[in-house]
Amino acid sequence: MEVNIHSSWKPYLISEFQQDYFQKLVSFIKHEYTQGVCYPRGQQIFAAFDYCPFENVKVVIIGQDPYHGVNQANGLCFSVQDGVDHPPSLINIFKELQQDLGIPYPSSGNLERWAKQGVLLLNATLTVRVNQAGSHQNQGWETFTDAVIRLVSEQKQQVVFMLWGGYAKKKASLIDASKHYILTSGHPSPLSANRGYWFGNKHFSRANQYLVSVGKGEIQW
Protein backbone atom coordinates (compact mmCIF):
# COMPACT_ATOMS: atom_id res chain seq x y z
CA MET A 1 0.00 0.00 0.00
CA GLU A 2 1.31 3.43 -0.94
CA VAL A 3 1.18 5.99 1.86
CA ASN A 4 1.27 9.62 0.76
CA ILE A 5 4.09 10.79 3.01
CA HIS A 6 7.31 12.69 2.26
CA SER A 7 9.78 10.43 0.49
CA SER A 8 12.53 11.01 3.07
CA TRP A 9 10.50 9.12 5.70
CA LYS A 10 9.47 6.16 3.56
CA PRO A 11 12.63 4.04 3.87
CA TYR A 12 12.39 4.24 7.66
CA LEU A 13 8.64 3.70 7.96
CA ILE A 14 7.90 1.18 5.20
CA SER A 15 7.96 -1.68 7.70
CA GLU A 16 5.30 0.09 9.78
CA PHE A 17 3.07 0.62 6.74
CA GLN A 18 3.19 -3.13 6.04
CA GLN A 19 2.11 -4.23 9.49
CA ASP A 20 -1.39 -5.53 10.20
CA TYR A 21 -2.19 -2.77 12.71
CA PHE A 22 -1.46 -0.10 10.08
CA GLN A 23 -3.56 -1.83 7.44
CA LYS A 24 -6.47 -1.92 9.89
CA LEU A 25 -5.86 1.74 10.74
CA VAL A 26 -5.99 2.72 7.06
CA SER A 27 -9.29 0.88 6.62
CA PHE A 28 -10.72 2.60 9.68
CA ILE A 29 -9.60 6.06 8.54
CA LYS A 30 -10.92 5.59 5.00
CA HIS A 31 -14.29 4.55 6.41
CA GLU A 32 -14.39 7.51 8.82
CA TYR A 33 -13.56 10.05 6.12
CA THR A 34 -16.25 8.68 3.79
CA GLN A 35 -18.91 8.52 6.50
CA GLY A 36 -18.56 12.02 7.91
CA VAL A 37 -16.38 15.08 8.44
CA CYS A 38 -12.92 14.42 9.87
CA TYR A 39 -9.84 16.58 10.34
CA PRO A 40 -7.33 17.42 9.11
CA ARG A 41 -8.16 17.20 5.42
CA GLY A 42 -6.95 13.98 3.84
CA GLN A 43 -3.93 15.50 2.13
CA GLN A 44 -2.83 17.08 5.43
CA ILE A 45 -2.86 13.92 7.58
CA PHE A 46 0.92 13.53 7.22
CA ALA A 47 1.69 17.26 7.05
CA ALA A 48 4.08 17.00 10.02
CA PHE A 49 6.31 14.77 7.91
CA ASP A 50 5.77 16.61 4.63
CA TYR A 51 6.91 19.97 6.02
CA CYS A 52 9.76 18.46 8.04
CA PRO A 53 11.77 15.90 6.07
CA PHE A 54 13.60 13.27 8.11
CA GLU A 55 17.05 14.75 7.51
CA ASN A 56 15.87 18.17 8.76
CA VAL A 57 14.53 17.12 12.17
CA LYS A 58 16.09 19.23 14.93
CA VAL A 59 13.18 19.54 17.38
CA VAL A 60 10.21 17.28 18.14
CA ILE A 61 7.08 18.67 19.81
CA ILE A 62 4.51 16.05 20.79
CA GLY A 63 0.78 16.73 20.97
CA GLN A 64 -2.06 14.32 21.64
CA ASP A 65 -5.00 14.92 19.27
CA PRO A 66 -5.74 17.24 16.35
CA TYR A 67 -8.12 20.11 17.06
CA HIS A 68 -11.66 18.88 16.39
CA GLY A 69 -13.32 22.23 15.62
CA VAL A 70 -14.42 23.11 12.09
CA ASN A 71 -11.41 23.81 9.83
CA GLN A 72 -8.96 24.21 12.73
CA ALA A 73 -6.48 21.33 12.31
CA ASN A 74 -3.84 21.42 9.58
CA GLY A 75 -1.85 18.30 10.42
CA LEU A 76 0.70 19.99 12.69
CA CYS A 77 0.28 19.70 16.45
CA PHE A 78 -0.91 22.90 18.20
CA SER A 79 -1.18 24.59 14.78
CA VAL A 80 -4.28 25.92 13.03
CA GLN A 81 -5.11 26.98 9.51
CA ASP A 82 -4.42 30.58 8.53
CA GLY A 83 -7.24 32.90 9.55
CA VAL A 84 -8.55 30.60 12.30
CA ASP A 85 -8.89 31.91 15.86
CA HIS A 86 -6.09 30.69 18.10
CA PRO A 87 -7.14 27.92 20.53
CA PRO A 88 -6.29 28.48 24.23
CA SER A 89 -3.19 26.23 24.23
CA LEU A 90 -1.74 27.99 21.20
CA ILE A 91 -2.41 31.38 22.79
CA ASN A 92 -0.37 30.30 25.82
CA ILE A 93 2.43 28.99 23.61
CA PHE A 94 2.67 32.36 21.90
CA LYS A 95 2.52 34.17 25.27
CA GLU A 96 5.44 32.08 26.53
CA LEU A 97 7.35 32.93 23.34
CA GLN A 98 6.76 36.60 24.06
CA GLN A 99 8.05 36.25 27.61
CA ASP A 100 10.94 33.99 26.71
CA LEU A 101 12.31 35.52 23.52
CA GLY A 102 10.46 38.81 23.15
CA ILE A 103 8.78 37.63 19.95
CA PRO A 104 5.69 39.69 19.09
CA TYR A 105 2.41 37.78 19.26
CA PRO A 106 1.80 36.50 15.69
CA SER A 107 -1.40 37.06 13.74
CA SER A 108 -1.39 33.56 12.25
CA GLY A 109 -1.54 30.36 14.28
CA ASN A 110 -0.18 28.34 11.38
CA LEU A 111 3.08 26.74 12.52
CA GLU A 112 4.27 25.64 9.09
CA ARG A 113 7.10 28.15 9.50
CA TRP A 114 8.42 26.09 12.44
CA ALA A 115 8.05 22.78 10.62
CA LYS A 116 10.00 24.05 7.61
CA GLN A 117 12.94 24.80 9.93
CA GLY A 118 13.12 21.27 11.30
CA VAL A 119 10.44 21.16 14.01
CA LEU A 120 8.48 17.91 13.81
CA LEU A 121 5.02 18.87 15.13
CA LEU A 122 3.75 15.37 15.88
CA ASN A 123 0.35 14.52 17.32
CA ALA A 124 0.09 11.05 18.84
CA THR A 125 -3.21 10.63 16.96
CA LEU A 126 -3.23 12.14 13.49
CA THR A 127 -6.97 12.37 12.78
CA VAL A 128 -10.25 13.13 14.55
CA ARG A 129 -14.00 13.38 13.87
CA VAL A 130 -15.41 16.89 13.81
CA ASN A 131 -16.47 18.03 17.29
CA GLN A 132 -15.55 14.67 18.86
CA ALA A 133 -12.30 14.93 20.79
CA GLY A 134 -10.33 11.70 20.97
CA SER A 135 -12.62 9.93 18.51
CA HIS A 136 -9.74 8.30 16.60
CA GLN A 137 -7.67 7.28 19.60
CA ASN A 138 -6.74 3.63 20.16
CA GLN A 139 -7.13 2.68 16.50
CA GLY A 140 -3.42 2.33 15.73
CA TRP A 141 -2.18 5.89 15.36
CA GLU A 142 -0.41 5.80 18.73
CA THR A 143 1.49 2.65 17.72
CA PHE A 144 2.63 4.39 14.55
CA THR A 145 3.66 7.66 16.17
CA ASP A 146 5.48 5.85 18.99
CA ALA A 147 7.47 4.11 16.25
CA VAL A 148 8.26 7.53 14.74
CA ILE A 149 9.56 8.82 18.09
CA ARG A 150 11.73 5.71 18.53
CA LEU A 151 12.99 6.09 14.96
CA VAL A 152 14.09 9.69 15.49
CA SER A 153 15.72 8.74 18.78
CA GLU A 154 17.62 5.81 17.29
CA GLN A 155 18.60 7.22 13.90
CA LYS A 156 19.42 10.82 14.77
CA GLN A 157 21.68 12.66 17.20
CA GLN A 158 21.19 15.73 19.40
CA VAL A 159 17.50 16.34 18.76
CA VAL A 160 15.48 18.48 21.19
CA PHE A 161 12.30 16.78 22.41
CA MET A 162 9.69 19.05 24.01
CA LEU A 163 7.28 17.04 26.17
CA TRP A 164 4.42 19.18 27.43
CA GLY A 165 1.97 17.68 29.93
CA GLY A 166 1.53 14.24 31.39
CA TYR A 167 0.66 12.46 28.16
CA ALA A 168 3.71 13.73 26.28
CA LYS A 169 6.03 13.12 29.23
CA LYS A 170 5.25 9.39 29.03
CA LYS A 171 6.96 9.38 25.62
CA ALA A 172 10.31 10.00 27.34
CA SER A 173 10.66 6.23 27.71
CA LEU A 174 10.97 6.01 23.90
CA ILE A 175 13.85 8.49 23.74
CA ASP A 176 17.56 7.92 24.39
CA ALA A 177 18.33 10.72 26.83
CA SER A 178 22.07 10.09 26.54
CA LYS A 179 22.19 11.57 23.03
CA HIS A 180 19.17 13.88 22.91
CA TYR A 181 17.96 16.90 24.90
CA ILE A 182 14.59 16.33 26.60
CA LEU A 183 12.62 19.32 27.89
CA THR A 184 9.52 18.74 30.01
CA SER A 185 6.90 21.03 31.51
CA GLY A 186 3.20 21.30 32.15
CA HIS A 187 0.83 21.53 29.21
CA PRO A 188 0.09 24.95 27.68
CA SER A 189 -3.66 24.43 28.18
CA PRO A 190 -5.26 27.01 30.50
CA LEU A 191 -5.91 24.41 33.22
CA SER A 192 -2.21 23.63 33.51
CA ALA A 193 -0.81 27.04 32.59
CA ASN A 194 -2.94 28.90 35.11
CA ARG A 195 -1.62 26.64 37.86
CA GLY A 196 1.93 27.72 37.08
CA TYR A 197 3.08 24.62 35.21
CA TRP A 198 3.68 26.23 31.80
CA PHE A 199 4.71 29.88 31.86
CA GLY A 200 8.38 30.49 32.48
CA ASN A 201 9.61 27.11 31.22
CA LYS A 202 11.79 28.94 28.65
CA HIS A 203 11.75 25.90 26.38
CA PHE A 204 12.23 27.96 23.24
CA SER A 205 15.37 29.75 24.40
CA ARG A 206 16.72 26.57 26.01
CA ALA A 207 16.18 24.64 22.79
CA ASN A 208 18.01 27.29 20.78
CA GLN A 209 20.91 27.42 23.23
CA TYR A 210 21.32 23.66 22.94
CA LEU A 211 21.04 23.63 19.15
CA VAL A 212 23.68 26.35 18.84
CA SER A 213 25.94 24.47 21.28
CA VAL A 214 25.88 21.37 19.06
CA GLY A 215 26.36 23.37 15.86
CA LYS A 216 22.87 23.01 14.45
CA GLY A 217 21.71 26.61 14.42
CA GLU A 218 18.70 28.01 16.22
CA ILE A 219 15.03 27.96 15.26
CA GLN A 220 13.44 31.27 14.32
CA TRP A 221 10.38 30.80 16.51
From TrEMBL:
Pfam families: UDG
Localization of this protein: Cytoplasm
Assigned EC number: 3.2.2.27
UniProt GO BP: base-excision repair, AP site formation via deaminated base removal
Source taxon at top rank: Bacteria
Catalytic activity as recorded in UniProt: Hydrolyzes single-stranded DNA or mismatched double-stranded DNA and polynucleotides, releasing free uracil
UniProt keyword annotations, A-Z: Cytoplasm, DNA damage, DNA repair, Glycosidase, Hydrolase
Record: active site: D65
GO CC term, one of those recorded: cytoplasm
Residue stretches in coiled coil: none
Hydrolase is among the record's keywords: yes
Enzyme class: hydrolase
Domain Uracil-DNA glycosylase-like positions: 50-211
Keyword field contains Cytoplasm: yes
NCBIfam families: PRK05254.1-1, PRK05254.1-2, PRK05254.1-4, PRK05254.1-5, ung
Role this protein plays: Excises uracil residues from the DNA which can arise as a result of misincorporation of dUMP residues by DNA polymerase or due to deamination of cytosine.
Family per record: Belongs to the uracil-DNA glycosylase (UDG) superfamily. UNG family.
Protein name according to UniProt: Uracil-DNA glycosylase
Protein species of origin: Capnocytophaga canis
